[in-house]
Amino acid sequence: METLNVELEFKEKEKEKTRARHFVRRKDLIAQSLEGELVMLDMQSGNYFGLDPIASKIWDYLASPKDIKTLCQSLMQEYEVGEDECQADVCSFISDLLDKGMVVTCP
After folding, report:
1. pLDDT confidence band for 1 (50 / 70 / 90)
2. Which domain range does residue 23 map to?
3. pTM summary value
4. Beta-strand relationship, 47-51 and 66-67
5. Domain count within the chain
C-alpha cells in the first residue's frame, strides 16, 4: 500500500506541475537526428539527452507553445493510445523535461 500511495502522490505532483500551462522547448539546445532518435546537447550544463521517436515527436510539437491537451490530441491522431494513458505519459514526460530545464513555461 505504501508504494501505491507514493506513486499516486508523485503522479498528482506531475499533474499539478503541468496543469493549465503552455510549454515550449528551449531554442538553445543542439539537436540532431541519429538512427531514429533525437540526440541533444545542453551547452549550459554539458548534458546529453536522447529521445525515442515518440518523445522526438513531442519535442517537434514543442517548437511553439503547446498545452498538455493539445499535445495529447495531436499524439492520439497519430498513435493508437487512449486519452488517459496519453495524458499520464505526456504529463510525466513534460515534468521530466521541466526538471531538466529542457522546456520552459509560457503564458
Report:
1. very low
2. 2-106
3. 0.79
4. unpaired
5. 1
